[in-house]
């Protein structure tokens, strides 16, 4: 099992930036990918970004392409989500997730049921 702890959420004005962090501990050697998802009030959880832990290959939701960047620090078992040009519609609880499953196609890592471990979430609020 992998334990995940997110940090870095907060309140920011539209157009601003935030960087989320997710520190992994436990059986981190079994991770094939890390992902970020978000859930706004009254909406389903949706995919934001994912990264293959070994190769560093990335995948983004269309709604955040060009504005968000996922990255990792292998030595610290930490994944980051740099969010720029934030919009009020980016307001949500952001969750970090880890997958211990290998998939050949990146599209599998856009699905929440491809992940085995989840963090507790961190609130991001973007004011207009």
Topology:
Blueprint: E1 2-7, E2 10-13, E3 18-26, E4 33-39, E5 46-52, E6 58-60, E7 68-73, E8 78-83, E9 92-99, E10 117-118, E11 122-127
Parallel strand pairs: 2-11
Antiparallel strand pairs: 1-3, 3-8, 4-5, 4-9, 5-6, 7-8, 9-10, 9-11
Give your account of this protein's structure.
By secondary structure, the chain is mainly beta. The protein has strands spanning 2-7, 10-13, 18-26, 33-39, 46-52, 58-60, 68-73, 78-83, 92-99, 117-118, 122-127. A hairpin with a 5-residue loop joins β5 and β6. The mean pLDDT is 94.
Please outline what is shown here:
This protein has 128 residues and is mainly beta. Helix content is 0%, strand content 50%.
Comma- or semicolon-separated keywords:
128 residues; mainly beta; seven-stranded mixed beta sheet; four-stranded antiparallel beta sheet; 50% strand; globular
């Amino acid at each position: 099992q992998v334990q995940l702890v997110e940090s870095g959420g907060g309140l920011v004005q539209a157009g601003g930036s935030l960087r989320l962090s997710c520190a992994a501990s436990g059986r981190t050697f079994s991770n094939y990918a890390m992902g970020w998802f978000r859930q706004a009030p009254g909406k389903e959880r949706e995919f934001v970004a994912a990264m293959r832990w070994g190769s560093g290959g990335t995948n983004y939701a269309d709604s955040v392409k060009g504005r968000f960047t996922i990255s990792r620090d292998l030595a610290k078992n930490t994944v980051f989500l740099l969010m720029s040009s934030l919009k009020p519609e980016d307001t949500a609880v952001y969750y970090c997730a880890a997958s211990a499953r290998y998939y050949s196609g990146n599209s599998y890592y856009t699905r929440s049921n491809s992940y085995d471990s989840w963090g507790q979430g961190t609130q991001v609020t973007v004011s207009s």
